[in-house]
Specification:
The chain has 35 helices and 26 strands. Helix 1 crosses helix 12, helix 15 packs parallel to helix 16 and helix 21 packs across helix 32. It is an alpha/beta fold.
Length: 977
């Protein structure tokens, strides 16, 4: 870049009392850092971040708001980073360290003691003070109007994570003595402040630009990105390991200091792909290792063609059947979008931790096949609170080299964690690049696979929200299983999409079963309300009415939507539907007949209780070894093992091993619904919403097993789905209570109504996949009548309840939802006002973007008769053969790393019984009895902050009036004590 000024130039412009103003102090070593030095460090880091780390798409967006383009943008970013801590040149800040305050006082910068100033200091936090000083300097020295300054100065005011509110600004104006001590020294304070600001303007090349910038109206997304960049620069420059305090570092020049720090930080450059060459067939063959003779599917080919021909990268919605290669299509589109837009990475958002874990190795495999991957170095993150327990991710972390610590040194040091603390962050979170470790910085990795919560947090008013926006603004965002998000989550998703559109972030949305109305909402949210309300309203109506399937929908920010209808692949399945009565005896008799010649059956229940009841009854008939249980109430390591075992035994024919030859039944909850490539001969399922029922059908005859399925047992060669969990004999079908609690009566009755013509006992025709997917989903979620006339009163009542529930969800979600981007030039003052504080991947944080009760998570260990603690006894050895089972957990010190990680891998989210306030409080009180102080230290990142649940040698315990029993085969069983 041209026009940059060497970092040492700031010091050469300063002399006298200004050199005594301090910014950092270490009470242990008594080392300190002068303010000019930290300003210079921060500006230098900001320039390096801009040149080598910030994705091109982010730089272009900021540059588009300034008359001098990218040169102006870089100057502005470096200057704002340089002046961000000017608020430390005030009595309110400087009084905090007496020896340094006395040194300043001796130079004429008089101030009262911290004790004398008292609690009034809170009116002038240094970010807000800096905003005020910079605004005053722009007005009085450069002729800016008051209304012009805020859009620039808010970056300084918000660099600690929360832009100031108008009330804060007004309160500071009434306490001018906190900015400059009244009396003779007031002029000296003013001179020092102006001297620092003048020096920064000259050193960073903005003095001659300020006149032209007066007419600029910075869009709010640009204000956010500049704030986030300054935050990162400040974090890096505040790291004493990288930028040592005086007097340790006095001997080095500024250039040497910055160069050494940058080498120590060792940040990888953003991904900069070239537009991939060749047609879709060549692209998929090279990126996904297609076997010889395999052909790219029509929806994949159409997605690639559309990505290349859109006016600019924007939003693409890909609707296609299960197993049609939507994930591969999304990654191919992401590469094209990134090349065209300058995006520096990909964020793949999935509905659950389990689906995130399953996606992570696929993301790694794709990365390894990218051109130049052998020479490139990417930062990669699995973004959820249990990420460090994923073996692929942990291996990546071990290869990641050194760690950088103390980056966020300005963060307050909190008290030692107690189990009753509701806001402690999940300590098991790691990231692959050593510096990108903190809970606020984790998403800044170039490639991320994680839960959708991490994306939804970008729509939640919370501290350091600007960092979350920077994290997504430079990526292509892929949102998988878009149908899986309820009205509450959709409120946040739509707002996030509106901001992604404002950032011009390319987005790919995937779904097999997306209602048309929801499709239109997603497209309108991204395109922006003005686009949808303008002359293109007819095009948006067409988006909400399109019934073609597969279907591609694309729109650019502010543009008109485009629809494409690629043909379906030749793959298809006819599924015969049948109603069966709900009852374990009925199920046992039916499966005894169906499995006479062997076969693999999947039974999906809507609640864990029904899973366990069903498994117990089936085992009595078929034997323990022939019944497998899968649900959400397993410890993490067992849940991962369950998923791996299901894939190993019931996965694709070319990958599965040891598929049972005799009868075998898997009884599962909704965990079998998403992102598991498993294949069964027969499906039995509780009634659920039709889109989810279709997802479950996607596990039935998923793969070809011989010609005409000839390798399946003879009576199971036809795909059949038995629907239960309902009193079908009632005048109106009556789903079991647990299903109604989970899904609501409206969705269940609409599902039954649209499936009615397909039930075979009424001579209905089979469900044809994929042809029937879209008609079934669109009819179920349409507003028109469905089902027999005699159902109408019950369905009307259920609809009214559903509408009230959705309105309640949307209303509660809107309380903390971020506003849409305001008009250009409007400062971000109050941007996260009335927010939730920190938004983290904790038990409280997740409840903020999901309509769920706060849940309790525990680490499960075993307690021997003598009171000692060990890891649970059934853990398998790690990849290197090291024993993990029964390892002793000392209470007087931090356990060894391998032992602590083994214990942490046994995390368990307690079921809903423990989510009610009174029960939760009682449970926490009881769990606190096993509080281990030695584990609550910074070196104990596996176990600090964790609630410990100790099972006796029989794997049982009592908690909050419930009896708990755990087994490796069945998971957690909870009964009233």
């Amino acid at each position: 870049m041209t026009g940059e000024v060497k970092p040492h130039s700031l010091r050469g412009r300063l002399d006298g009392p200004v050199l005594t103003v301090w910014a950092k102090y270490d009470r242990d070593s008594e080392g300190w850092l002068p303010l000019w030095r930290h300003m210079e460090d921060s500006a230098a880091v900001a320039g390096l971040l801009w040149d080598t780390w910030l994705p091109a798409s982010v730089r272009r967006l900021i540059a588009s708001a300034l008359p001098g383009g990218e040169q102006d943008a870089r100057r502005l970013a470096v200057w704002l980073a340089g002046v961000h801590d000017i608020g430390k040149a005030t009595p309110a800040f400087a009084c905090q360290v007496e020896p340094l305050a006395n040194r300043m006082d001796a130079q004429g910068l008089k101030m009262r003691s911290q004790q004398s100033i008292g609690p009034g200091r809170r009116f002038a936090p240094h970010g807000l003070a800096g905003q005020a000083l910079l605004g005053e300097w722009l007005r009085e020295r450069h002729g800016w109007a008051v209304k012009q300054t805020g859009q620039f100065t808010v970056v300084v005011g918000g660099h600690h994570g929360v832009p100031p509110e108008p009330g804060d600004i007004a309160a500071l104006h009434k306490h001018g003595q906190l900015l400059r001590t009244p009396g003779p020294s007031r002029a000296e304070w003013r001179r020092v402040q102006d001297e620092l600001l003048d020096a920064c303007a000259d050193a960073y090349g903005v003095r001659d630009r300020l006149g032209e910038w007066r007419s600029v109206k910075l869009p709010q997304p640009v204000q956010v990105l500049l704030t986030a960049l300054v935050i990162v620069a400040d974090w890096v420059a505040s790291n004493a390991d990288l930028f040592p305090y005086f007097p340790q570092d006095v001997a080095r020049s500024s250039e040497e200091r910055v160069a050494a720090a940058w080498r120590g930080l060792d940040l990888p450059a953003p991904w900069c792909p070239d537009d991939p060459e060749g047609d879709a067939q060549e692209l998929f063959a090279s990126r996904f290792g297609l076997p010889p003779g395999a052909k790219v599917r029509p929806v994949q080919e159409a997605a690639v063609e559309l990505a290349r021909t859109m006016d600019e990268p924007g939003l693409m919605v890909i609707e296609a059947p299960m197993g049609e290669g939507k994930t591969e299509a999304a990654l191919a589109v992401a590469e094209i979008f990134a090349a065209r837009s300058g995006a520096g990475g990909v964020f793949f958002a999935l509905p659950t931790m389990a689906t995130g874990n399953a996606m992570f190795p696929r993301l790694l495999g794709w990365l390894k096949r990218l051109p130049g991957a052998e020479d490139a170095r990417y930062s990669v993150l699995l973004a959820h609170s249990k990420a460090a327990l994923n073996e692929d991710f942990a291996e990546l972390m071990r290869e990641g080299g050194h760690r950088i610590v103390a980056v966020d040194v300005d963060a307050p040091e909190g008290p030692r964690w107690r189990p009753s603390d509701k806001t402690g962050s999940a300590p098991a979170e790691l990231v692959a690049h050593a510096w990108l470790r903190g809970r606020k910085k984790a998403m800044l990795s170039s490639f991320v696979a994680g839960t959708v919560d991490q994306l939804l947090f970008a729509g939640l008013k919370s501290r350091h929200l600007a960092m979350r926006h920077l994290a997504v603004a430079g990526k292509v965002v892929v949102i998988d299983e878009a149908h899986a998000y309820d009205a509450y989550m959709s409120v946040y998703l739509d707002r996030v999409l509106s901001w992604l559109g404002a950032y011009r972030v390319p987005v790919v949305v995937l779904s097999a079963t997306l209602p048309a109305a929801r499709r239109r909402e997603l497209v309108e949210a991204y395109a922006g309300g003005k686009a949808a309300a303008a002359g293109s309203a007819t095009e948006f109506e067409a988006v909400g009415e399109a019934l073609a399937y597969p279907l591609l929908t694309a729109v650019t920010p502010g543009g008109e939507p485009v629809l494409r209808s690629p043909g379906a692949s030749a793959r298809g399945t006819d599924v015969a539907l049948e109603r069966i009565d709900d009852g374990l005896d009925v199920l046992i008799d039916r499966l005894t007949d169906e499995l006479d010649g062997g076969g693999c059956v999947l039974v999906v229940r809507n609640t864990v209780r029904r899973v366990l009841e069903t498994a117990q009854a089936l085992r009595a008939m078929f034997g323990d070894e022939n019944v497998t249980v899968a649900h959400s109430c397993f410890i993490d390591v067992d849940r991962a093992a369950k998923d791996a075992d299901l894939l190993k035994r019931f996965g694709p024919p070319d990958k599965a091993e040891n598929r049972p030859t005799g009868p075998h039944i898997v009884v599962a909850s909704q965990v079998a619904e998403q992102s598991l490539d498993v294949d069964f001969d027969l499906l039995v399922t509780d009634l659920c919403p039709v889109d989810l029922l279709l997802q479950r059908m996607g596990r039935l005859h998923r793969h070809q097993r011989g010609e005409d399925q000839h390798e399946r047992p003879e009576r199971l060669r036809r795909a059949r789905c038995l629907v239960t969990g309902v009193d079908w004999r009632a005048d109106v079908p009556a789903p079991v209570r647990g299903s109604v609690a989970v899904y609501g009566a409206h969705a269940l009755l609409r599902s039954a109504a649209v499936l009615l013509p397909h039930f075979e006992e009424g001579h209905g025709r089979p469900v044809r996949l994929p042809e029937d997917i879209s008609p079934l989903v669109q009819t179920a979620y349409a507003d028109g009548p469905a089902g027999p006339e005699r159902w109408a009163p019950a369905m009307a009542e259920a609809f009214e309840q559903h509408e009230r529930h959705c309105a309640d969800q949307a209303g509660r979600a809107a309380v903390f939802r971020l506003e849409e981007a305001g008009k250009d030039g409007k400062p971000l003052f109050g941007w996260v006002a009335a927010g939730v504080g920190d938004a983290d991947d904790t038990r409280a944080g997740r409840a903020q973007v999901r309509d769920s009760r706060e849940s309790l998570e525990v680490v499960v260990v075993q307690q021997r008769a003598d009171g000692s603690l060990t890891t649970v006894p059934w853990l398998a050895p790690d990849r290197n053969g090291n024993r993990l089972a029964g390892l002793e957990l000392p209470r007087d010190q931090v356990p060894p790393t391998r032992t602590a990680r083994a214990a942490a891998s046994c995390g368990l989210r307690l079921p809903i019984q423990f989510s009610y306030a009174e029960v939760m409080d009682r449970a926490i009180e009881e769990l606190e009895k096993l509080y281990v102080p030695a584990w609550q230290v910074k070196d104990s990142h596996w176990l600090s902050g964790q609630l410990i649940l100790a099972l006796d040698v029989g794997c049982q315990t009592r908690l909050a009036g419930f009896s708990l029993r755990y087994s490796e085969s069945d998971g957690l069983e909870v009964t009233s004590a």
